[in-house]
Design goal:
Immunoglobulin-like, five-stranded antiparallel beta sheet, 13% helix, Proteinase inhibitor I42 chagasin domain-containing protein, signal
């Protein structure tokens, strides 16, 4: 392989790695966390970690007005896992649920809505 071909191969591998999804693995444990912004008001954080043979899903929505009522839905591998409403107190609210640790990859999607504000958080564990 020529020198220029090796350089091209290395550059291709480097660029391919930059496009990978960003998920933060906190500390050295098995926790996976992602963050993002809502459309409208707020920012979200979703975290999944093992807990006694199950998975704990913890979602927090920040920078919302206290007392606002938000409707939310949590799906696990495309199936409804939970739904409800929450009222923000002090500018944020949190939803915690424990789910079965399915065989293989677990994908969680949390969607919260209030008026024109929509938060969609997705994490794969």
């Amino acid at each position: 392989m020529s020198r220029s071909a090796r350089h091209l191969a290395c550059l291709t591998l480097l660029v391919a790695g930059l496009g990978a999804p960003v998920a933060a693995h906190a500390h050295d444990d098995d926790r996976v966390e992602r963050r993002g912004s809502c459309r409208g008001d707020g920012d979200w954080r979703i975290r999944v970690e093992p807990d006694d043979g199950r998975l704990e899903v913890d979602v927090e929505i920040d920078h919302v007005r206290g007392g606002q009522r938000w409707s939310w839905v949590l799906t696990h591998n495309g199936t409804l896992s939970a739904r409800g409403t929450s009222r923000g107190r002090g500018g944020s609210y949190e939803v915690k649920r424990q789910t079965v640790d399915a065989a293989g990859v677990d994908t969680f999607r949390f969607r919260a809505r209030r008026g024109g504000s929509v938060c969609v958080a997705t994490v794969t564990y």
